Automatic annotation (TrEMBL):
One of its GO terms (molecular function) is amino acid binding. SUPFAM superfamilies: Aspartate/ornithine carbamoyltransferase (SSF53671). Its main location: cytoplasm. It comes from the Bacteria. It is an enzyme of class 2 (transferase). The lineage of its organism: Bacteria, Bacillati, Cyanobacteriota, Cyanophyceae, Oculatellales. The keyword Transferase applies. One of its GO terms (biological process) is L-arginine biosynthetic process via ornithine. This is Ornithine carbamoyltransferase.
């Protein structure tokens, strides 16, 4: 029996294969109306980065579980005046039942979790974005009926999304290929961790060649070329990443049944063309919806909802 009550989710690697499956199964049941767990708890959102999908899906999710949300925007808390993370964590631990944190430094998230006893969820850091990947896996499973044996190709910046996708795909038995420019590849520690999780079951490939990554893939995934906090670098990155654009020509190399995913927000005609994003292979809007269902399931399990 999978036991997630009281746990943190700071990285996809905090989960095992059975736990990911349990989250996805509950998310599917809740989306279909087959399960309606109740949880009258209080969620705190401690966000230091802008957010649309994450903020709204967490807020709606806890309301639908029967709980409530407190939006602890850093600018209106003592965090903005330099209160240490270790102090904030120990205080909020006594008020809240669960907290989702969106920040820059993964170490800050880990420090908060060390000093708080309540479940802490990574709602995005510069290192990982595990909640997005749970929704991504739910979307792929809805499309193909399974995850094991499929191939996911990520094309673009080897950023937090690439990191969590590599770990998540390895956990569920998917092949994962990442194509990035030489100076923008995913961190070697993440590559090694994903390869260790995958073992001999599946392929973990990092390449400079987007065609090699996409050839025969069932899922083609991309993200913006400059993440939050890197906006001043966006223009200079365009010529570097232009060969990695997900367009109709690149999609022609994928499996005939392939779908396209993007975690949003998207810059049409940069990392993805409008024709692909709005085309028949796109599952971007289903993917965005599934943030709600996957996070509801995650919170229900972490809180031990009835």
């Amino acid at each position: 029996m999978v036991m997630l009550e009281g746990r943190d989710l700071l990285s996809m690697a905090d989960l095992n294969t059975a736990e990911v499956s349990a989250i996805l199964e509950l998310a599917a049941d809740m989306k279909a109306g087959r399960a309606r767990p109740r949880c009258e708890k209080t969620l705190g959102l401690l966000f230091q980065k802008a957010s649309t999908r994450t903020r709204v899906s967490f807020s709606v999710g806890i309301f639908q579980l029967g709980g409530q949300v407190l939006d602890l925007n850093a600018s209106v808390t003592q965090v903005s005046r330099g209160e240490p993370v270790i102090d904030t964590a120990r205080v909020l631990d006594r008020y809240l039942d669960i907290v989702a944190i969106r920040t820059f430094d993964q170490k800050e998230l880990e420090t908060f979790a060390h000093y708080a006893q309540i479940p802490v969820i990574n709602a995005l850091t510069d290192w990982e974005h595990p909640c997005q990947v749970l929704a991504d896996l739910q979307t792929v499973q809805e499309e193909f009926g399974t995850l094991e044996g499929l191939t996911l190709a990520y094309v673009g910046d080897g950023n937090n999304m690439a990191h969590s996708l590599m770990l998540g795909a390895a956990l569920v038995g998917m092949n994962v290929r990442v194509a990035s420019p030489a100076d923008y590849r995913p961190h070697p520690d993440i590559v090694a961790r994903a390869a260790a999780i995958a073992g001999d079951r599946t392929e973990v490939l990092v390449t400079l060649d987007p065609v090699q990554a996409v050839q025969g893939a069932h899922v083609v995934y991309t993200d913006v070329w400059a993440s939050m906090g890197q906006e001043d670098l966006a223009e200079s990155r365009v010529p570097i990443f232009q060969p990695y654009q997900v367009n109709e020509a690149l999609m022609g190399k994928a499996d005939g049944s392939a779908i396209v995913l993007h975690c949003l927000p998207a810059h049409r005609e940069e990392e993805i063309t409008a024709a692909v994003m709005e085309g028949p292979q796109s599952r971007v809007w289903d993917q965005a919806e599934n943030r709600l269902h996957a996070q509801k399931a995650l919170m229900a399990l972490l809180l031990g909802a009835a």
